[in-house]
## 1
Amino acid sequence: MQKGTNRWALQKPTKNVWQMLGPSLLLVALAISGGELLLWPDLVSRYGFAFLWTVPLILILQFAVNMEIERYTAVTGETTLGGLVGLSKWFRLLFPISIVVSLVWPAWASPAGNMLAHTFGVPGQGALFGMGIMLMLILIWNSKNSYKILETVARYGLLVVLGIILWVIGTNWDPQIMSEAANGFTSIGYFPPETDKFVLLSALAYGGVVGVLNLAQSDWTKAKGYAAAGREDPSLVNWELEETQSSWKNWWSLMLKEHFVVYYIGNFVGIILLSILAFVTIRGLDVKNFAILTAQFDQLREQTPILGIAFGLGITLLFTMAQMTILDAQGRLLKTSLQSKISNEKISQFVGVIGLIILLMTYINPDFNQPAFLLRLSASLSAGVMVMYAPFLLVLNNKLPEKTRPKLWNKLLVIGCAVFYGIIIVWSLL
């Protein structure tokens, strides 16, 4: 504590970057279960590696936005969404609507149900399986241990899927793959004339995670106790002290490294591996949308039945975990934006019921049961939400103590993110 005052100097971090891993992991899991598992392979199956040049770009733009979300919480100890809502009374209306509209669709329970149904040989019952999964997730908040159990199972599912990916790539390796991939990375600005704009927009949005889901990272940063968020009363930190400023530089450096290692590199590797998997398994096949996953399942099952089944169950677990995580994030975000006294668990359950009703509608009307469409719809709406709130992150963080405010490069990347996705949205609608 500073002499003569009741304010504290910020303590230096006592953990290294590996011990700080956490807030980025869930975003990577969501990305793999969405854009990287279905949407990017969809692009590769249609256009080869033509769009790989966008991967480093979208990840660095999203990286910058995510760090501004972490920055506010690490300095103030408050959630970033709470700070944004405090900027304008209109945000108290816009954010709840944005959260519900962009995430209410059971865009992960649907492919989970369809994959499970296909694995068990009853592909026409995907909506019914999806309803069962959603019902399980609604009930799971009644048990504090169920989330940990499902999370553990999902992690093993991820290991199974990644193991299968590496095995398939290794046994089907062709030197042409490197040449094709290199062309994709160097063809900057190239868009095939027949590009499906909706698919591209969705892949760009969920290659990483875009939208209000990013804001949930603020809660995880707070729970992890980064910088001032780890103090009992963050408002008592004296940001004018040299000791505090030195400690902040150390914290910020570790936060950057943690997010870069897990989020940027993790998503980059995930997109590349799953794109190569699609290239070596369904190249030349006329498959689109969710049929990409079922085609991969069928091919693996023909090679070795156990691998096909493991692939199907692993994908089901990944999508299920993603849907549960999103329901949890919705509960937290809606509670903050609505300033509700209702627990976030109860809010998550209520939103889950809405998703269950949507799945029931798809069961009644099979023509609407298109999991890839639901995922794309959620991704596109999320991109619109990102365009809306990203610039206001800078407004919010420019009110922080001077030494903790974003630098010029941070500001340019955040603005660039909003502009990029704004342009892509307009282009996709033309």
## 2
Amino acid sequence: MATTLKIDNTLKDRIQHLANQRRRSPHWIMREAIQQYVEREEARERFRQEALASWVAYQETGRHLTGQEVRTWLNTWGTEDEKTAPECHK
């Protein structure tokens, strides 16, 4: 699928300059930038969906952990006294 992308001359010059520095084509630079943007935004959307699902689950059950409970648990990671995840409660 061929796609046309219109960009202003200032950005075009910046892309060309970066491509020259990286010994890559401007096309490669633009594809890489778009790919990284899409991957970042997909990850952001997955995080948002997970947060919404967690909020719905909390509203339905009331089960949760406090911030302090999570911090206390995380502080044991990598120690000889590493704990398992605490149980959620109401």
## 3
Amino acid sequence: MKTIKKYRIIGLLGKGGMGTVYKAVIPHTEKIVALKVCEPRDTLVSILGIGKIRRQFIKEAVTMARLKHPNIAEVWDMDEDNGKPFFVMEYYCNSLGTMIGETYEDRPSRPLSVDAAIHYGGQALAGLARLHYAGIIHMDVKPYNMMITDEDTIKLIDFGVSKIRGEQLGGPASIKMGTPYYMAPEQEDNPDSADERSDLYSIGVMLFRMLTGRLPDGRTDASSINPDLDEAWDRFLKIASHPVSDSRFAEANQMLTALDRLAKAWEEKKAKTCALIEEASLPETLSKVADHSRLRSTPVKVGLKQGKDLFNTDGMWRPKHVVTHVFKDKGDGTVLDETAGLLWEKGGTPYPMTWYEAQEYMNELNKKRFAGYSDWRLPTVNELMSLFIKHTDPYRFCFEPVFDTTQQRIWSADKKSFVAAWYADAKLGFVWWQDFTCFFYARAVRSLQ
């Protein structure tokens, strides 16, 4: 079993230009962490030299360790192993890149709701405000560098190419510091010219993508793609991702204030929309019970290729067809779905847990005969997808949810491999997989006899 000093390596999380990130375990406590080792690519070593790379790597660790903010990941340890420096930081399974199903190509991704985009965008800006206050430019702001905690909080990571305000990075002009599509034009032309506004450009691109599922092209307004948006959003996004840095927001807090104004206007719009709706005027599709066959209840082990067919999802792992269900709150902690022949636990676990702990939770419910039954189980992916709401439905935010909304990401009984299982994001409406050690919620279900 591979170890790096006292840390036991249990998996590979990713490789970058300057280092490799492993999933590791702290001995005795068995706490899982992310461990980054200075293992640069040969091409980068030939260009910059190992000395400069080591200094930059150590600077990344020191920078993160010195900053204390709820939206910046913490570094807990730093050492050297076989001549290679490494540092240890907090670990989370999910990132914003995972949430939107992003690839490093100009291809459609999963659009998020306006509420989710405001939630994540605001936290990212708060983290950047703290970073910029310390005089640090991140230089690589993108969804995959935004980890999402079990409490749905953004954590900025990867300060490998960051710089101090006014610092000259040096090195050949051909080296690009950042990620295509998210990199500001001035940063792409000359990394030494990048400043706080370069990071804000990246946030503007990220928000456009969250709200539309596309990258901005400078010609298409976001409101023409997402009907929830208006001209105020278009103005905001154009300023945020303007190609000329002087035409952008001057600082993170200024951009955050503008986003807060949009958030307030969005809440007012939702309230007005819902006030005009009466039960009798609802579309028929929202008030009638759907008629469809019973959902699969037997768990399976299925990989990526066969998973889309079995779960009947599109290329972004969303259900191809969202069927309207009518749920009945029975008042005893359960919710009835007669159309699917299912009785659900209304809430679920109060805290996120590992997949094995979720299984044990089911056992405990059955031992105490929750709601009078002893055949509770983890739902299959297909059963979980029956809880999804169609996000294009204009009435979707006008009703009190029958289920507890705390449980957003929920474990399924279906396995992806011998070490991973599928889960569903009931709020954002997609399915994906993670290894058993990740922390998600569990919600029990049972089949009606």
